[in-house]
Amino acid sequence: MRKKIIHELHDMPKFVYVLAVLVVFGAIVGLYRLYAGLGATTNLSKAYPWGIWISFDLSTVALSGGAFTLAALVYVFHMHNLHAAVRPTVLAGLLGYSSVLIILFMDLGRWDRAYHFLIYPNVNSALFEVSWCIALYSSILVYELSPVLLENTRWKGFIPVLEKYTIPMVIAGVSLSTLHQSSLGTLFIVMSERLHPLWHSMLLPVFFLISSLASGLALIIAGASISRWVFKRSLPQNLIAKLGWFLPWVLGVYLVLKIGELEIVDELHLLFTSGKYSVLFLTEMVVGMIIPIAMFSSYRVRHDRTASMIAAFMVMFGVVLNRFDASWFAIQPLPGVDPYRPHWMEVAILVGVASGVFLAYTLIGRYFPLFEETMVVEDKKAVGETAVNPQLAPEMSVNK
Amino acid sequence: MSTHNTPGKYGFLIDVTHCIDCRACNVACSVQNNVSMDSTRIWMNGTGVVGDFPNLQSYTAPFHCMHCTDPSCVSACTVGALTRDHEGIVRYDDDRCIGCRYCIYACPFQVPNMDLNEQFPLIVKCDMCGDRLEEGEQPACAATCPPGAIQFGRREDMLAKAKQIITDHPDKFIQHVYGEHENGGTSTFYISPVPFEELGFPIPGSTSSAYYNRLVTHGTPAVFGAAAISLSGIYLTIKNVKEETAEEEARAAARAAVVQAAEGSAAEAAAAEAVETAGEEA
């Protein structure tokens, strides 16, 4: 047994050890943060009560939107040929949400009272909604992932029982996601005096929801390329092309709404007259929307692995930049106060948590049936097709 | 408009021309509420020294919670630690607060304060000296102010007085009562000889951001319901369409079988059977 463990450890890719070190370091700094308070370990202040942690939370939730987008496409819209992507994406979503919960806990001044959001509701508060939705949706992601975790254990008898409720659970999960993805945008509506007008809008919840669809789809595409490199497994290109086909539509709606809203509230001139804010906004639009729309519109790009990966990363960059803008870069400075810059400990905790996500993904991908197609779906033909997918099979055998 | 809240019972009237920057209010507040001077519930805003020598001037004014009629912080607070009571005082429950600091960003006047150097920090914020009010006394800052720049009384009296003073002295005052309409109306009124932005006062709109916030958050249950119902509908519709298509295909196959069977003479019974099984399958 001991020999086997040593052998396994020896066999691990080297970056796993780097990740493990970062996780341990982040955990130590995190414990110190809980002990010492926010003042000693962060650069948060009265002028900037939220910092890089909130930006990270918003970005991660947006990227994890892939899990609900795909679940909706596969189960609700019966696109069973996309099923092969479900397990890897649901795991990415679950780990993303877990990291958000850890960082939110770090962010609470009174972390000892974190449970208060369960017992003291304020139904007017967007943050109250978000906390509930994230807690409930994380549980649904655990449910959706449970077949992967149970399959090779003695509890695998529960899987058919669990799978009976897949459809209602997926619908509940997608509905909850619709809520909290948009509520994260609602958060900033009440901050009208601090957020730059290019970003502040009554349509913020709609913007956040639509952009999370885009970044979620992009994450699945980019993730397929990363897993090709790390696990020597990936999704077939025709499936990636199918996902990419949705992006020009989603991004197009997003772009039209954003520009249309600025036009309606008569703020279009701010696009070119707001200095660094204009640069940030235009970067979001050009890099994150216009170029990817052009790229994914092309049949050749959708069917080219490298090109679709680059375009997907641009979409993700645009959405992540949007979340950083809304919660940090586009917050108006107060007179006489230096702009916020994160403390190194804030960054260290963040790097630790993000490394934890990649570490957990690598290990689960190594020891659990993440990339296999065994989940029962109603359309048996789809399972048959994907299970013997000729593009998957040779890659699987390469993996050692 | 935009809110059903009635204006508060009490109000402050702060006359910037009378403030001499002695900070007795800061000390009184610090002592009364047992908070340190660094994270006090009241602080000074001012123009700094302005004008050309020898006509130099400096205006200052104490600033604390405005006690909005429709407070943004109350709308934002995750756990309902901030509330507006029946007298219109915006209060803070330090046993509930989870330290998320959303109220600090939500408040258009940048009022909620927090000493982040504490291991377990809490919000520091004016509560109009609620304990003193119950005993029939004025808030500590108003009771202390040596030049009488901070006056306290019934809200409508304070507002009427503010308007009276600025209309009586149009040469001395900006013709605007700060706090009457800011963020949907507040319980603290300022009159000043210089524009309020020069005093370093935030200039919020006349509708509370809490109103816009509620517009969206109150739609949440409806959005959830609509999402769940429409997703279920889409699921069932596509499922039924697929089943119907399969059924039709089976029927067509059966009909083809009938035609084929009719060509052979003794196969009528077999064809009927085929139709039956096809129907069952579908």
Q: What do these coordinates show?
A:
The complex is a heterodimer of chains A (400) and B (282). With 400 residues, chain A is mainly α. Chain A contains 19 helices and no strands. Chain A has helices spanning 2-11, 15-36, 38-41, 52-63, 65-76, 86-107, 116-119, 126-150, 158-163, 166-186, 204-230, 237-264, 270-273, 276-297, 299-302, 305-329, 344-367, 380-387, 392-398. The longest helix of chain A is centred in the middle third of the chain and has 28 residues, at 237-264. Chain A is globular and about 65 Å long. Chain A starts with a helix and ends with a helix. Chain B has 282 residues and is of the alpha+beta class. In chain B, β2 (43-50) and β3 form a beta hairpin. In chain B, the strands form four sheets. In chain B, strands 8-1-9 form a three-stranded mixed β-sheet. Chain B contains nine helices and nine strands. In chain B, α8 packs antiparallel against α9 (268-281). Helix content of chain B is 39%, strand content 14%. Chain B starts with 9 loop residues before the first strand and ends with a helix. At the A-B interface, α3, α5, α8 and α10 of A face α2, α3, β6, α7 and α8 of B.
Gist of the model:
The complex is a heterodimer of chains A (400) and B (282). With 400 residues, chain A is mostly helical.
Major protein interface: A-B, 63 and 56 residues
For the residues shown, what is the average pLDDT of chain A? Answer: 88
Number of domains of chain B: 2
Distance between termini of chain A?
20 Å
Class per helix and strand makeup of chain B: alpha+beta
What's the layout of helices and strands?
The complex is a heterodimer of chains A (about 400) and B (about 280).
Chain A: H1 2-11, H2 15-36, H3 38-41, H4 52-63, H5 65-76, H6 86-107, H7 116-119, H8 126-150, H9 158-163, H10 166-186, H11 204-230, H12 237-264, H13 270-273, H14 276-297, H15 299-302, H16 305-329, H17 344-367, H18 380-387, H19 392-398
Helix pairs in contact in A: 2-17, 4-6, 4-16, 5-6, 5-10, 5-11, 6-8, 6-17, 8-10, 10-11, 11-12, 11-16, 12-14, 14-16
Chain B: E1 10-15, H1 24-33, E2 43-50, E3 57-63, H2 72-76, E4 82-84, E5 90-92, H3 102-106, E6 113-114, E7 123-124, H4 130-134, H5 140-144, E8 150-154, H6 155-168, E9 188-191, H7 209-217, H8 220-263, H9 268-281
Parallel strand pairs in B: 1-9
Antiparallel strand pairs in B: 1-8, 2-3, 4-5, 6-7
